């Protein structure tokens, strides 16, 4: 018994010393999507901003596939030492409903470290759409039931999720047209092959400013200030009460990562979110830095629990699942 207690004590002391000296080697942030996309950009900006307060090297590893779930699974099964982290977006909350067989539990296989940012979305249409404002668009939708095409960037994408909620909120079924990414979906929208799309400001503001698409509303509860979207109403104010969709990003570690390590990463995250260059980079993406209680682990997890509760019924009602 004495030997067992001694072994436990030595192990505890070693763990404490390791946590105290953290980081002693490079930290990897796993991005569950391909390089070059919005989430990858956020992760690379964050890696640079968080490197300074952590005092160590931070590298990015892209683990794309299966709507982000491959990257999530990799981190869930990684060593719980703080050297493998996950930068994930809203898929953390939607995958439990979208995928029948997940290799991880979104709420129980990760340590929550804090939210990073939120990206608003816009409801846009082909340039030849006859409606001049949302009121006219609502009438057009009602008059064209059964003939409306709604584009998205693929199952589980931001545009797919926003489109599902839009259909549910308007009580109008539309023909969902999935593409392999935002690029081809936007090309067909601009060309008039599809009618509508709901996508992130990171993907839409340039098209709106250039007059290549028509814009009707934003998906947040407050109006936006960006030049291209400042005159757009919110969907909430035009009658879709409670409509609120943003694409958010959060930072996670494997379950059972030592608390001293989690505390260090959370403190570094809070510092990074106040970094002038990081803020500038996020503003250029059309993203809002999170500056409320959700930068704390407990509030971050509570927020994701609420998002799971919101998206689960929407996805199940649509019956659009991935294997």
UniProtKB/TrEMBL annotation:
It comes from the Bacteria. Belongs to the UPF0065 (bug) family. This is Tripartite tricarboxylate transporter substrate binding protein BugD. The keyword Signal applies. Coiled coil: none annotated. Pfam families: TctC (PF03401). Residues 1-19 form the signal peptide. SUPFAM superfamilies: Periplasmic binding protein-like II. InterPro entries: BUG, Bug_dom1.
């Amino acid at each position: 018994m004495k030997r067992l207690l001694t072994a436990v004590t030595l192990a505890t002391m070693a763990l404490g010393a390791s946590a105290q000296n953290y980081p002693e080697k490079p930290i990897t942030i796993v991005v569950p999507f391909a390089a070059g996309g919005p989430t990858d950009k956020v992760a690379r900006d964050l890696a640079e901003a968080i490197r300074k307060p952590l005092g160590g090297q931070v590298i990015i590893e892209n683990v794309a596939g299966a709507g982000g779930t491959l990257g999530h699974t990799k981190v869930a099964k990684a060593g719980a030492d703080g050297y493998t982290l996950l930068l994930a977006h809203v898929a953390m909350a939607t995958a439990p409903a979208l995928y029948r067989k997940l290799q991880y539990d979104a709420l129980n296989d990760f340590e929550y470290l804090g939210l990073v940012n939120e990206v608003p979305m816009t409801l846009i249409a082909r340039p030849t759409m006859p409606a001049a404002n949302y009121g006219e668009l609502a009438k057009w939708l009602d008059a064209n039931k059964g003939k409306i095409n709604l584009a998205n960037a693929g199952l589980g994408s931001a545009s797919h999720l926003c489109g599902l909620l839009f259909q549910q909120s308007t009580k109008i079924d539309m023909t969902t047209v999935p593409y392999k990414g935002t690029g081809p979906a936007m090309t067909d929208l601009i060309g008039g092959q599809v009618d509508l799309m709901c996508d992130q400001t990171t993907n839409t503001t340039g098209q709106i400013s250039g007059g290549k698409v028509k814009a009707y509303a934003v998906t947040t509860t407050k109006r936006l200030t960006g030049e291209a979207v400042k005159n757009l109403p919110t969907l909430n104010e035009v009658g879709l009460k409670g409509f609120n969709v943003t694409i958010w990003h959060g930072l996670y570690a494997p379950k059972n990562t030592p608390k001293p390590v989690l505390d260090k990463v959370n403190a570094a995250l809070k510092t990074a979110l106040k970094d002038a260059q990081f803020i500038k980079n996020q503003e250029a993406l059309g993203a809002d830095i999170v500056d409320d209680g959700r930068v704390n682990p407990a509030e971050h997890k509570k927020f994701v629990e609420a998002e799971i509760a919101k998206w689960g019924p929407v996805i199940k009602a649509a019956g659009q699942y991935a294997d």
